[in-house]
Specification:
This protein has about 375 residues and is α/β, with parallel strands linked by helices. It has 2 domains: about 1-65 and about 130-170 and about 185-365, TIM Barrel; about 75-130, no CATH class. About 40% of the residues lie in helices and about 20% in strands. It has helices at about 1-10, 25-30, 45-55, 120-130, 140-150, 165-185, 185-210, 225, 230-235, 235-245, 265-270, 290-295, 315-330, 350-365, and strands at about 20, 65-70, 75-80, 85-90, 95-105, 110-115, 130-135, 215-220, 250-255, 275-280, 300-305, 335-340. The strands form 3 sheets. A 6-stranded parallel β-sheet has the order 1-12-11-10-9-8, with helices on both faces. A 4-stranded antiparallel β-sheet has the order 3-4-5-6. The chain has a two-stranded antiparallel sheet with strand order 2-7. A hairpin with a 2-residue loop joins strand 4 and strand 5.
């Protein structure tokens, strides 16, 4: 599948179906509950698990990010009290505070307070970003890791920093605050986004020098959230980033794991080689049968198609088998990767990953 995946990204037709499954959420949740092997959280353990499940290894987050922030003259204080975690950025003009809470039963964290809620917070964020730089990380051993993963028929994922608007929403303001601040203080928000794009350049340049086969823009997009903001705040930065990566021979995928209809055609025309984690009906807003026509770009690699929620109740294997059959019938004739959209949940049935692998093998080539 690895060679077929690379051929797809080069614009070829490998004649073989590539199948990926992000099982990290399932592993993490079940390790916490004592029901899974902790070794599966390691790089080698992940590779062995994917080999056993029959999917192409791709998703492992131990060395995912290609860039990390460094701050000068800023104290960062972390405090944990029970399920709540508090992060404080302390600067001469004031503080920004973030709070997250571990949600019982979901094995995941949710924001309880975003750092940037008001104009005063926005001013502090500008001050903070003025003392921040993004440094390349996890690139020095990537070539060696690429060779290791090739022995398991896989490619390790590598994530760029979130694009400016996605970073502003996910990391700093949240969707509601971010949208209101963008409307009320457009000049300041534009300054924030420009700083973020400038600071990502050393990371993008280092990735271009490394020239991995593919990189991910891990923006966790949803059409319901940012479609109306795309042209004003996202298309330009995406085009500039993609142009630099393409000049270096690096293919680009972007993570769209929410509603699809509004953003898919915009991302497809912007230059991405693939849009990943496409979530169709019955959980998303677009059926598998119309996904390619919505993308309106026959060269785009559609990646995803199996909603993660279908691995859990009330969905049965019969439901899954029927869905995968329709997916394969609908996506044949164009480039695609079958994938979980976006993760197998901790209460999902991991055996269904094996069953999908067998079903794809039985259905033959792409």
């Amino acid at each position: 599948m690895r060679e077929a995946f690379l051929e797809l990204l080069r614009g070829g037709n490998p004649g073989e179906i590539v199948w990926t499954a992000d099982v990290s959420y399932w592993v993490d949740g079940n390790v916490r509950e004592g029901r899974a092997d902790p070794r599966w959280q390691t790089e080698l353990g992940h590779l062995e698990l994917c080999r056993e499940l029959g999917c192409m290894p791709y998703y492992w987050y131990g060395k995912f990010w290609a860039g990390e922030p460094r701050y000068d003259g800023v104290d960062i204080v972390l405090e944990t009290r029970g399920p709540r975690r508090r992060r404080t950025w302390r600067m001469a003009p004031g503080e920004l505070v973030e709070e997250t809470v571990l949600v019982g039963g979901s094995w995941s964290e949710a924001p309880a307070r975003y750092p940037v809620c008001t104009e005063a917070d926005l001013d502090l964020l500008l001050h903070l970003l003025g003392r921040r730089r993004m440094e390349p990380v996890n690139l020095g051993d990537y070539t060696q890791r690429l060779a290791l993963w090739a022995r398991y028929d896989g490619i390790p994922c590598l994530g760029l920093p979130r694009s400016p608007l996605a970073a502003f929403i996910v990391e700093w303001a949240g969707l509601e605050n971010g949208a209101l601040l963008a409307m009320d203080f457009p000049e300041k928000v534009a300054e924030v986004l420009a700083l973020m794009e400038a600071q990502e350049r050393p990371v993008v340049e280092a990735v271009c020098e490394l020239a991995p086969p593919v990189v991910h823009c891990p923006d966790n997009l949803s059409s319901a959230a940012v479609t109306s903001l795309f042209e004003a705040h996202m298309e330009g930065p995406y085009r500039r980033r993609i142009a630099a990566l393409h000049r270096a021979g690096v293919r680009c995928a972007v993570h769209l794991d929410g509603t699809v209809r509004g953003l898919l055609p915009k991302l497809a025309r912007t230059g991405f080689d693939s849009v990943e984690a496409l979530t169709p009906k019955p959980l998303g807003d677009v059926g598998v049968e119309e996904m390619r026509s919505v993308a309106a770009n026959p060269a785009l690699v559609l990646w995803g198609g199996i909603p993660g929620a279908m691995f859990a109740q009330p969905f049965s294997w019969a439901d899954m088998r029927s869905h995968v059959g329709r997916l394969l019938d609908s996506w044949r004739g164009g480039p695609f990767v079958v994938g979980v959209a976006d993760q197998v949940p901790p209460n999902g049935d991991l055996e269904n990953v094996r069953r999908v692998s067998k079903l794809i093998a039985e259905r033959g080539g792409a």
